[in-house]
Specification:
The complex is a heterodimer. Chain A is 46% helix and 15% strand. By secondary structure, chain A is α+β, with helices and mostly antiparallel strands. Chain A folds into two domains: 57 residues; 106 residues, H-NOX domain, CATH 3.90.1520. In chain A, strands 1-2-4-3 form a four-stranded antiparallel beta sheet. The longest helix of chain A is centred in the last third of the chain and has 16 residues. By secondary structure, chain B is of the alpha+beta class. Chain B has three domains: 132 residues, Haem NO binding associated domain (Beta-Lactamase, 2-Layer Sandwich), CATH 3.30.450; 35 residues; 157 residues, Alpha-Beta Plaits (2-Layer Sandwich), CATH 3.30.70.270. Helix content of chain B is 45%, strand content 24%. Chain B has a six-stranded antiparallel beta sheet with strand order 2-1-6-5-4-3. A six-stranded mixed beta sheet of chain B has the order 8-9-7-12-13-14, sandwiched between helices. In chain B, helix 8 packs across helix 9 and helix 9 runs antiparallel to helix 10. The longest helix of chain B is centred in the middle third of the chain and has 37 residues. Chain B is rod-shaped, with a radius of gyration of 42 Å. The chains are: A alpha+beta, B alpha+beta. At the A-B interface, helix 5 and helix 7 of A face helix 5 and helix 6 of B. Chain A: Pfam families: HNOB.
Chain lengths: 197, 340
């Protein structure tokens, strides 16, 4: 697993629950160090173990923790730049959904060795979509779900989403677009003129 | 040209313009006399108040390269060539363009090229202002993503550097006193003497330290070693090297003291302060030390090994002469003097 992923997980715990809680997690998994490095690869097993420990330390189901991580990625001010990068996906939440196919390619443009699992969007009818998340890391779909919830808020769209198991290790998110212009959402300028973004 | 032909030419343009608006939103079309006939929606945003249609193309635009284009005919002749141009009054936004002869005039498509960021901020453009095939948005994305990755790398590098410095510091510091350790001292001494400056090498040995340790315990012994380190640091200058060589042996390398007498003054102050009793775990203890000094100008191009031998010999002589004594090594003799 790319160090950026583990570092993001660390960021989630630290920014949401404080440094002390993070240190507790590192002791629980006997990491042997306290901070992940963004540019080093770690084993998938280590990331799995880390997520299990976080679930216990935060006293919430692993799926809920993963969903929180997804939302954290696009809503916390410390990750404003990431939210901006995702907003390049399009002008509306629908544009954004349709651009998810490009996400692995876009991620590779920025960090060539970052392996973002494939996301396949299927149109099921007007305003109804399903998104298949296929990843070696089980529960990845929950991260995507949390991320989509955060982005829907960002775009000001009212969206209903639900997750179920798909084939093999995959997870499927069912999406119903209720209102694309439900609220104002947050502004996004192509060139960086926003304050604090 | 007959009016019939002119009308057909205008109709030819009119037919293609709505399609061009979608595909090339930064295009414009010009007629045979260089008069603008139509402007794409994004190009219009560069100058929303201007009445574009009917204006003279060359009044609004300056073609920087090639520099010999001043008429529609020139534009037609330059079909397919890369054009560098600017809007007059907007020198900061460079444009790239290409012209194509069409009907009796020309179609010119423009692009911001690498100045896209500048243009987007200036004209408040959004992704809808660009054709879906235009890679400008991808370029902006990449620019931002790369900046982010570079920042992350820089942070990681700074962290590594801090870790490295901390590790180096740890490897060269004596944990008990915070002074340089033996390992660091060897390197530092070589560097100092290699620089061929005048140095005074001072060896200090505490008197009867073993007995203090045995009698009062190691904690008291450690406290005395720390006290000695404090005295050495306080009585020397920042540029001097103060190290714990091991056990109760300390070394000071004084950089460029004014004279041997100057170095001796420091030595006397050190011994004097060590003689003052200190309070350790409720007990008043006085510890004395013996010092041997080697002064580099006394010798002809001495190596650090020579100086160490001389300082060591002086230290032995001082110890032989009794507690609280210092000795200065000189060629042929050692001068010992008890501290007052």
């Amino acid at each position: 697993m790319h160090g950026l992923v583990n570092r993001a997980i660390q960021g989630f715990v630290e920014d949401t629950y404080g440094r002390e809680r993070w240190l507790e997690v590192t002791r629980r998994v006997a990491l042997g160090f306290t901070d992940f490095d963004t540019m080093i690869d770690y084993s998938t097993e280590q990331t799995e173990t880390l997520l299990d420990a976080i679930s216990i330390a935060l006293d919430k189901p692993k799926e809920a923790a993963l969903e929180d991580i997804g939302t954290y990625l696009v809503t916390h001010p410390n990750l404003g730049p990431l939210r901006r990068l995702l907003r390049f996906g399009g002008e509306t939440f629908l544009d954004f959904l349709l651009s998810l196919d490009d996400l692995p390619g876009r991620a590779r443009m920025a960090v060539p060795d970052l392996d973002v699992p494939d996301l396949q969007l299927k149109a099921l009818g007007p305003r109804r979509y399903s998104l298949v998340c296929d990843s070696p890391l089980k529960g990845y779909g929950y991260v995507v779900l949390g991320l989509l919830r955060g982005m829907a808020d960002d775009y000001g769209a009212l969206v209903l989403m639900d997750i179920r198991s798909g084939q093999g290790k995959s997870e499927v998110i069912d999406i119903v677009l209720v209102d694309l212009e439900f609220s104002e959402g947050r502004s996004f300028d192509l060139a960086r003129t926003e304050k604090g973004a | 040209m007959t009016s019939h032909v002119r009308r057909r030419a205008r109709e030819g343009f009119a037919g293609v313009e709505p399609a061009l608006d979608l595909i090339c939103p930064l295009h414009l079309t010009v007629g045979p006399r260089g008069i603008i006939r139509h402007v794409g929606p994004t190009l219009r945003r560069l100058h929303p108040d201007l009445i574009w249609e009917g204006s003279a193309f060359f009044d609004l635009f300056e073609i920087c390269r090639p520099n010999d284009i001043s008429s529609t005919n020139d534009l037609r002749a330059a079909s397919g060539k890369r054009l560098h141009l600017r809007m007059r009054g907007m020198p900061e936004i460079g444009l790239k363009g290409v012209a194509a002869a069409y009907s009796d005039g020309a179609i010119i498509d423009l692009s911001f090229g690498i100045e896209a960021v500048n243009a987007i901020t200036t004209f408040d453009l959004t992704s809808r202002d660009f054709s879906p095939t235009d890679l400008t948005i991808e370029m902006l994305y990449l620019l931002e993503a790369k900046t982010l990755v570079m920042d992350e790398l820089r942070t990681a590098n700074l962290r590594l550097r801090d870790d490295k410095l901390a590790a180096e510091q740890k490897a060269s510091t004596d944990a008990l006193t915070g002074l340089w350790n033996r390992r660091a001292l060897n390197t530092l001494m070589h560097d100092s003497v290699a620089a061929a400056n005048d140095v005074a090498l001072i060896y200090l040995d505490l008197d009867h330290f073993k007995e203090i340790n045995d009698h009062y315990g190691h904690d008291t012994g450690d406290r005395i070693l720390q006290h000695t380190a404090e005295v050495l640091v306080a009585e020397t200058r920042r540029a001097d090297i103060v190290a714990r060589f091991g056990g109760d042996e300390f070394v000071v390398l004084m950089h460029q003291p004014k004279s041997a007498a100057d170095a001796i003054k420091v030595v006397e102050r050190i011994l004097g302060r060590l003689n003052c009793p200190i309070c350790v775990s409720g007990k008043k203890l006085a510890v004395s030390g013996s010092i041997g000094v080697a002064w580099s100008p006394n010798y002809d191009k001495p190596t650090i090994e020579h100086l160490r031998t001389y300082a060591d010999r002086a230290l032995y002589a001082a110890k032989d002469a009794g507690r609280g004594t210092y000795a200065l090594h000189q060629p042929g003799e050692i001068i010992t003097k008890p501290c007052d």
